[in-house]
Structure formats: C-alpha cells, structure tokens
Amino acid sequence: MKVEEFKKLAEKYTHKKVNSQERLAMDIFFSKMQEANKNVLVPISSEKREKLFYNIQQNLTIKRKRTPLKKYLAMAAAGFTTLLMLGFFTGMFSNNYTTIIAEKGEKKEIKMDDGSVIFLNGNSSITYENNFTEERTVKLQGEAFFKVARDTAHPFTIKSKDLETRVLGTSFNIKSYKDQVPMVSVNTGKVEVIPLKNPEYKVILTKDQQASFKENRKPKISKGDSRDFNAWTRKMIILKNISLEHTAKIIENWYDVNIQFADDSLKQLKITGKFNDEKLSNVLKSLALIKNLKIDSTNKKQIIIRKNPI
C-alpha cells in the first residue's frame, strides 16, 4: 500500500466509511503501531514534517469555512495522527511484508514457503516477512490453526495479543481475538507459550492440552479433545457449556452478522451444541429452541436476541 492510498484509507476510517476488510486493516495497523511505538513519537525528517504539516494545513484551510467546529477538530486530529504514524507506516507496509486477511464470513488456507499450512478463521489476519523461510515469524490477529513443517534450524514463532508461541514442527490452534481471552490448543507435538507481560508464566503444552491466558494471571491449563477447538477448519461449530455471549461472537465471525442482546442477562446463558456446516437460520432456530429465546432479524446483517415472552 502506498502512502497516498493509506491517507485516503485513514480519512475513510475517521469518517466511519470503511468496509469490514478496510477496518480490519486499520485495526491491524493501529495494533502494530502501539506495539512498536509505545510512548515514542515516530521519527520523521524535518523536511517531510514541514511538507506534511503544509498539506494538512492547506486541506483544513479550504474546508474550514463550511465545516462545523467538531468536524474540523476531528479532521485536524486525523491529519496530525497521520503525520505521527507515517514514518512507521512506510516501514511496516513496505514490500518486505505480506498481510493476508480473512473477513467475517470467510476462511482461508495459506501455504507457506517452508511447507507449513495456516488456516485463517473469519475476522482474522496474519502478517509475515517475505523471507519467511529464513525468519519463520508470523503476527496473528484473530484465530488460526497451524500445521508447522519441522525445521530445527528455524523455529516457528507466532506473536498474538500479548503471547508468543514457539514450535519446531507441530499442529495447534490459537484463538486471539482482541475482545476475548487468548487460548492455545495443541493437536500434535509440543508448544511453548510465553505471556509477554508475565514471561515467568511460560508453559509447555502437549497433545490435547489447552491454555487460556487472562492478563496478569497464571494460565489456566485444561485437557480435552483438541479437534473440538479447531472444528471450524472442518466447517463445524462445537459448543461445550459456552456462554451465549461467546457463542454470539463465534456466529458473528462465521456468518458476517452483528448480534445484539435486548437483555444483558441473556449473555451468561450456557450453550452446548454441535452444528455441521449449517445455515445461519438453522443455527438461530436451534439456539432459540434450546434456551427458549426470541431471535429477530432487522435485516440480513442485524440480529437481536430477546427473552421469549411466552
């Protein structure tokens, strides 16, 4: 992505006119900027700084007379943010990196140059350097299942939401959505997981072990059939005593919809069930029947879950 393209995208993002893929791309960018530049302003040459300030000023001067103050300030903030981010942006989105995005409602299979295979769930992304066989590091946002080709000379590392996962050759699932507790589940081999904020809580996981990582707490390790945790790669949804709120997040990413609750108390209802490549309408009917709910659709994308008055 070129600088001009990014500036246009930043403007669309500021005015909430981006589509789901563009929003995810910007979220990835902001996440990486925060990770790499905590409490540090992006270094930028004085010449480029003056030029950018001039362009921002010109843009605002033209529109100021017919723009409300609130919108004017938002434009100024967006322009200044672009200025601070630009130096980091040009390095992060250079031709040295590849980013692959799976939007809500889709899944992708990525075959890496080293022979590894990554299955990317909906509303997720991975970023990696193009010389991947030399530096096997992937940055994950969302959820992915990894089948890692063994290479003892080049360990495979995944960085995701305050976690770093290291392997040589194995298969495992990482769920790391920004609004959920991160979880790692191992299918084969051995996996080392390090909470970056609390590295002393490092754990080694083996086949059919799972670990969830709440911030500043020791990871919770459990044992269960690992195939259940990556059932999504086989077009299956498996729910085992999961809250309706968590279930709603799964459905949102799976079918590209937005789910709201008319009553927050419904979020804590526990759901158990299995859906094998079902249509959204069938899943919603089943949930309504199991928990005596009323589920309405205002349109194809908006769903509201209510208590059944009957």
UniProtKB/TrEMBL annotation:
Tell me where in this chain the FecR protein domain is found: 99-192
Transmembrane segments annotated in the record for this chain: 72-93
Spell out the protein name for this chain.
DUF4974 domain-containing protein
Q: Which residues form the Protein FecR C-terminal domain?
A: 237-305
Give the keywords, sorted: Membrane, Transmembrane, Transmembrane helix
Q: Which PANTHER family match?
A: PERIPLASMIC SIGNAL SENSOR AND SIGMA FACTOR ACTIVATOR FECR-RELATED, PROTEIN FECR
* UniProt keyword Transmembrane, yes or no: yes
The record's section on Pfam families has: FecR, FecR_C
Could you read off the lineage of the organism from its UniProt record? Bacteria, Pseudomonadati, Bacteroidota, Flavobacteriia, Flavobacteriales
An annotated Gene Ontology molecular function:
sigma factor antagonist activity
